[in-house]
Amino acid sequence: MTRALRTCIAAALAGSLWTGGVMAQDRMPEIPADKLTDAQRRASEEFLAARKVPVFGPFVPLLRSPQLMLNASSMGLYLRYNSVIPLKLSELVILITAREYSQQLEWHIHQPIALKAGLDPAIVEAIAEGRRPDAMPEEEALVYAFSTELHHNKSVSDRTYAAAVARFGEQGAIDLAGINGYYTLLAMTMNMARTALPAGAKPGLPELIR
């Protein structure tokens, strides 16, 4: 192998890795308005009409597939604002998912929302550090167990499932799975696309040694 080839391979590998907890250059940044396809332009307009804000965050890379972006946005609106799961618990699920995927932008957006919704800062800190919080109220402990079992075991135990249905109903169990799955989709998309944090923002998640 030539020295030049080794240099190229090393550069490619370096470009695919996290550096100091920050992802490398954004692979799918915002598309300039004059470069949008007709389908992307229509999807951007529909997004703005539904959410009252321009395409942002995970929807920037998703716009490369306009219909997927719109469908994802619609699902997100339901899960955020119409789910039977209370906002504080929904945000707990999102933070767990962001930590599972070390997704800095997902954490950056939702950590302050979770705190404002009333989630204990000690719980937020523990999740950021990749450990189970020392003490949680019953509902938070149930949602934590449900979500971490889904992420780690790809399933939910009979005991945890029964507790979730008893507390939130079958719709609630589905909504909990949906929130976990939806924010996993967004985390995977942003990790693949290397979606950047806003200018000047610092990563909120420490790098974990697994």
TrEMBL record:
N-terminal signal peptide: 1-24
Keywords per UniProt: Signal
Protein name: 4-carboxy muconolactone decarboxylase
